[in-house]
Specification:
Elements lengths: L8 E2 L18 E7 L27 H18 L6 E8 L7 H15 L1 E11 L6 H10 L3 E7 L3 H6 L7 H12 L3 E8 L6 H13 L4 E6 L7 H8 L7 H17 L3 E4 L2 E3 L14 H7 L3 E5 L4 E4 L2 E5 L3 H9 L5 E5 L3 H12 L6 E2 L11 H6 L5 H5 L2 E2 L3 H5 L1 H9 L1
Parallel strand pairs: 2-3, 2-10, 3-4, 4-5, 5-6, 6-7
Antiparallel strand pairs: 1-13, 7-9, 8-9, 11-12, 12-13, 14-15
Helix pairs in contact: 1-2, 1-10, 2-3, 6-8, 11-15
Length: about 400
């Protein structure tokens, strides 16, 4: 289970939004549908997820109907403030969304589409554990309107998967990807590097296996040790070593090199996609849903612990599935708290997120008293001088490795 929810103001029981929200109908709208169930909790994970023994009366078989109740609330409150718009993207995340019957995921998607509508060419993604993907599952998802499957591969090396407490069989990644492609779905593959005991050779083996799948999108995330996780406790006890920062940097450089050689382009620090061969946003191989987060679009997060953002207002739901179900059974909003960040906080977040993108952030969008620091970042090899000439801060490869330091320099 994840850590505590943020501090904030109490959320209204009816879920209403302030009437003075500066709604911009041109800002894209997305939906995130959280499925908080897992068969086994991975040792590194601090997401808001629950195994069967932790549900305390919440029932997986009731979950789709419960979440659909929140969709009805969202439709009403967004309409009340003039913020009802069709969805550009939908993302089923978790947890393991594919632990639910594919028909349940289809019902949730249909309810959201009925409430908000979908733009032409909308991107609809489902995260999947390879062991839960069958041809029947992906056909049902494709028939329901899903366009993209994000497969949690993590590694192709058994001892690395064991270190991460991943229980899927590596060979099932191949069959899951093949089934998704046969159903006409786009495929993304997720990898993690820097696990205890993982060598550079192990990582290269995983990259080779991911590239052999011939997907159009690959995410590669450095393992981060989160407080409260099993892995953090193991490291604290000395049972496993702390991830080596230098080795992780070598792994990142290897990933960027191998992916570039295979025709992938980085578009966010941890994400690469093959350029589209067909014009039009519906053929964009990047994760448009994640781009919506990084660019500060509007989204509603459905499910326990999910976070939402509309026109600068943020709120988050109660964490436990049982509490979430109880709120909705009483026809109350599941929102636990809300906040409206001030201009300084929003500026910090904007720099933090946009600087991670290949498109970068406009120098003019930086705090006025920090713009002169761009020259020093260029001198240090962290920012691309050619992009800076055209008024944008774009990270170099070295800058991507030190992205947090760049953000501090531009905001502190």
């Amino acid at each position: 289970m994840a850590g505590p929810l943020p501090l904030g103001d109490p959320a209204p029981a009816d879920g209403r939004l302030p009437s003075d929200l500066p709604i911009d109908p041109a800002v894209p709208f997305s939906a995130y549908l959280h499925v908080p169930f897992c068969r086994v909790r991975c040792g590194y994970c601090d997401f808001n997820t629950y195994t069967s023994g932790e549900l305390r009366g919440a029932k997986q078989e009731d979950y789709a109907s419960t979440l659909i109740s929140e969709i009805a609330i969202a439709e009403r409150v967004l309409a009340d403030v003039g913020a009802l718009r069709p969805m550009d993207t939908v993302f089923f995340g978790g947890g393991t969304p594919t632990l639910l019957p594919a028909g349940d995921l289809a019902r949730m998607l249909d309810a959201a589409a009925s409430a908000f509508g979908l733009v032409d060419g909308a991107e609809v993604t489902v995260e999947a554990n390879p062991d839960t993907v069958t041809p029947e599952v992906v056909r049902t998802l494709a028939d329901a309107g899903v366009t993209r499957l994000s497969v949690g591969m993590q590694s192709a090396v058994p001892h690395v998967l064991a270190a991460l407490d991943r229980t899927h069989r590596p060979e099932n990644v191949d069959t899951a990807v093949a089934a998704a492609k046969d159903a006409g779905l786009a495929v993304s593959v997720d990898l993690i590097y820097g696990a205890p005991g993982e060598s550079l050779g192990d990582w290269e083996r995983s990259l080779d296996a991911a590239l052999a799948l011939d997907s159009d999108h690959i995410s590669a995330y450095a393992l981060i040790i989160e407080d409260g996780t099993k892995l953090a406790r193991q490291i604290r006890r000395g049972d496993v070593p702390t991830p080596d920062d230098d080795l992780q940097a070598d792994m990142y450089e290897l990933a960027d090199s191998r992916l570039a050689a295979a025709g992938f382009e980085w578009y966010e620090v941890s994400n690469w996609a093959r350029p589209s061969t067909t014009s039009g946003t519906q053929h964009d191989n990047r994760s448009r849903h994640n781009l919506a987060y990084w660019r500060g679009s509007d989204w509603w997060g459905f499910g326990p612990g999910a976070h939402s953002h509309v026109a600068g207002l943020r709120w988050w739901n109660v964490k436990h599935p049982a509490a979430y179900a109880q709120r909705l059974a009483a026809f109350d909003s599941p929102a636990a708290g809300t906040e409206r960040p001030d201009d300084e906080a929003r500026m910090l977040e904007r720099v933090l997120l946009l600087s991670r993108l290949a498109e970068g952030i406009a120098v003019a969008d930086l705090p006025a008293d920090k713009r002169s620091r761009v020259a020093g970042l260029i001198a240090d090899g962290l920012v691309d001088p050619a992009a800076a000439v055209h008024g944008r801060v774009r990270l170099t490869l070295r800058g991507r490795l030190l992205a947090d330091a760049v953000v501090r320099e531009l905001t502190d």
